[in-house]
Design brief:
- The structure is a single chain.
- By secondary structure, the protein is of the alpha/beta class.
- The chain folds into 2 domains: about 200 residues, P-loop containing nucleotide triphosphate hydrolases (Rossmann fold), CATH 3.40.50.300; about 170 residues, 3-Layer(aba) Sandwich (Rossmann fold), CATH 3.40.50.300.
- The protein is built from 18 helices and 14 strands.
- The strands form 2 sheets. The chain has a 7-stranded parallel beta sheet, with helices on both faces. The protein has a 7-stranded parallel beta sheet with strand order 10-11-9-12-13-8-14, with helices on both faces.
- Strand 3, helix 5 and strand 4 form a beta-alpha-beta unit.
- The longest helix is centred in the first third of the chain and has 14 residues.
- The protein is globular, with a radius of gyration of 24 Å.
- The structure holds adenosine monophosphate.
- The site of adenosine monophosphate (AMP) has 13 residues, from helix 3.
Length: about 450
C-alpha cells in the first residue's frame, strides 16, 4: 500500500516525500492505520525495520488536533537509552518540521532546570528514559494525567536493563484510557505479562528479524586465544586487512573492555571513538556524531549503548567478544548491511566461546564460515576448532559458503590509521617500525630508545 493510503495527514505525507521514502516498510504498512484508528498496538519488530517512523508519523497526524498544557504532556515515549531517546527526537524534527510541536527530551546527564523549563511551556511529545521521567515526577514537576498516547519502545531491552518495575509504575500513572503502542524484538515471559496487563485488546503486528532477511551481510569467524592482548592483535590485523574497512563498529561485552580496546586502538594510531554507559551524555553524543560524520572511522561500543542506533552505511562489524545472548549478535550485525548495502561482520572467537557461537548459529539458522587470521602463516582454524563445525545448524544454510581469503603478508596500516608526521623527532624515529605491536599492557616509555654517554 502506498503512503497516501495509510490515512496520514497531508503535512506528514509531504515530510515523508521530503525524506525520500516511496514505499512504507512492512511495520509501517501494518501498524500506521491501527495507530490512526486509536487502537493499542503490539509491534514485534527490531530497529532497522522502520519502526520509529511507524509510530512517529501517525503520532504527528494525531497531534495536529489539540494543544499542550503546562506540565501535562500529551504523549509520552519511553526509551531504554539516552541515545535512542535522542534518535527519536531527531525523527520528530525530521518528519515534524512543519508541525510546530513542542518536543522535550528527559534523559540523564542533562540539566534538570532546562528540562523543567521546557515542561513548563507545555509539551506535545515527551521522550524519556524511565529513571529521569520518574525523577521529574517525584519532584512534582510533571503531571502524567494528560497523556493520551504512550509508546514503550525496545521493551525487551528495558527488561535486560532492569527497567520493568519503572515501566509498570509509569503505566499506572498515565490514564487508563490512553492508547498504548508497545514495541519489542522478542517476547520473553516477563514482556508477555506486561503486554497482557497494560495493553487493551491490542492489534499484533509482527515483522521478520532483520538478520534472517539481510543476505547482504557476510558473516565470518576468526580464531584467537582467550588472551585479551592477543585478541587486540587479531582485531588490528582484521582492521588493516586489504579488503578495505571503510568504517566499523567494534562490539565488546563489557564497558571496561570497551575502554581498554578503545585506548589500545588509539595508542596504535587508529582513528577511534568509544561508546559505553559510563561516559557522560555529552561524551556519548560527541562520539556518535564523530562516527556519523566520518571524523572517526572506528567506534568501540557496548551492546546497551549501541542498541538500536541508526548509523547508515557501516562497512564492517567486529565482535571483539562473542555476545553471551544470540539476540545481541543479531542486533550487532544488523548495524551493517543496511538500506540494501553490503557489509561484513567478523567475530573473534576464543576456545571458550564455541558454545555461544553454536547458539548463534542455531538462532540464525546458518553456519558461519571460519576465515584465516590475516596474520602471515595462519591457516583457517577449522582443524583446531572442530566443535564449531560438527554441530549441525537448526536450518539449512541460506548462503553458499565463501572461500576463506588468501593469507596476507604484514602490511602498512589501513588508510584510516592516523597519518604519521612526515619527519619524526629523533627519539621517535628510533622507535622500531613495529612499535605498534608492542604489548598493550606495557607503557610506551619502556620502548623509547635510550642514549648512553660513553
Ligand atoms: P528504524 O527501524 O526506525 O531505526 O529505521 C531504520 C532506517 O530506515 C532509518 O534510517 C529510517 O530513516 C529508514 N526508513 C524508515 N522508513 C523508511 C521507508 N519507508 N523507506 C525507506 N527508509 C525508511
Amino acid at each position: 500500500m502506498p503512503f497516501s493510503h495509510l490515512g496520514l495527514s497531508e503535512k506528514v505525507l509531504s515530510a515523508v516525500a521530503a525524506a525520500g521514502y516511496t514505499v512504507p516498510t512492512p511495520i509501517q504498512d501494518q501498524a500506521i492505520p491501527h495507530v490512526l484508528a486509536r487502537r493499542d498496538v503490539l509491534g514485534i519488530a527490531q530497529t532497522g525495520t522502520g519502526k520509529t517512523a511507524a509510530f512517529v508519523l501517525p503520532m504527528l497526524t494525531v497531534l495536529e488536533q489539540g494543544r499542550a498544557r503546562a506540565r501535562m504532556p500529551r504523549t509520552l515515549i519511553l526509551e531504554p537509552t539516552r541515545e535512542l531517546a535522542a534518535q527519536v527526537e531527531e525523527s520528530f524534527v525530521k518528519y515534524g518540521a512543519k508541525h510546530k510541536l513542542n518536543v522535550a527530551l528527559l534523559i540523564g546527564g542533562v540539566s534538570f532546570d532546562d528540562q523543567d523549563a521546557k515542561l513548563t511551556r507545555g509539551v506535545d511529545v515527551l521522550i524519556a528514559t524511565p529513571g529521569r521521567l520518574l525523577d521529574h515526577f517525584e519532584r512534582g514537576r510533571l503531571l502524567l494525567s494528560g497523556v493520551e498516547l504512550l509508546v514503550i519502545d525496545e521493551s525487551d531491552r528495558m527488561l535486560d536493563m532492569g527497567f520493568i518495575p519503572d515501566i509498570e509504575r509509569i503505566c499506572k500513572l498515565v490514564p487508563f484510557t490512553r492508547q498504548t503502542l508497545f514495541f519489542t524484538a522478542t517476547m520473553p515471559p516477563e514482556i508477555r505479562r506486561i503486554t497482557e496487563q497494560f495493553l487493551h485488546n491490542p492489534v499484533k503486528v509482527e515483522v521478520a528479524r532483520p538478520a534472517t532477511t539481510v543476505a547482504a551481510i557476510t558473516q565470518q569467524l576468526v580464531r584467537s586465544s582467550g588472551d585479551p592482548s592477543e585478541k587486540r592483535e587479531v582485531l588490528r590485523r582484521l582492521i588493516r586487512a586489504p579488503e578495505g574497512v571503510k568504517n566499523a563498529i567494534i562490539f565488546c561485552n563489557r564497558k571496561t573492555e570497551v575502554a581498554r580496546v578503545h585506548n589500545s586502538l588509539r595508542r596504535h594510531g587508529f582513528s577511534v571513538a568509544a561508546l559505553h554507559g559510563d561516559l557522560d551524555q555529552s561524551a556519548r553524543m560527541h562520539a556518535l556524531d564523530q562516527f556519523r560524520r566520518g571524523e572517526v572511522a572506528l567506534l568501540v561500543a557496548s551492546d546497551v549503548a549501541a542498541r538500536g542506533l541508526d548509523i547508515p552505511d557501516v562497512s564492517h562489524i567486529f565482535n571483539f567478544d562473542v555476545p553471551h545472548h544470540p539476540d545481541d549478535y543479531v542486533h550487532r550485525i544488523g548495524r551493517t548491511g543496511r538500506a540494501g548495502r553490503s557489509g561484513t561482520a567478523t567475530t573473534i572467537v576464543a576456545p571458550s566461546d564455541l558454545r555461544s557461537v553454536a547458539a548463534i548459529e542455531s538462532l540464525i539458522g546458518q553456519t558461519i564460515q571460519w576465515i584465516a587470521d590475516p596474520a602471515a602463516g595462519e591457516s583457517p582454524p577449522d582443524a583446531q576448532l572442530p566443535a564449531a563445525k560438527s554441530r549441525p545448524p537448526r536450518r539449512d544454510a541460506r548462503r553458499p559458503r565463501q572461500p576463506a581469503p588468501r593469507q596476507q603478508a604484514p602490511r602498512p596500516p589501513a588508510k584510516h590509521a592516523r597519518a604519521e608526521p612526515a619527519s619524526r623527532p629523533v627519539t621517535q624515529a628510533a622507535i622500531p617500525a613495529e612499535r605498534n605491536d608492542r604489548p598493550d599492557h606495557l607503557p610506551a616509555f619502556l620502548f623509547r630508545p635510550v642514549r648512553v654517554k660513553v
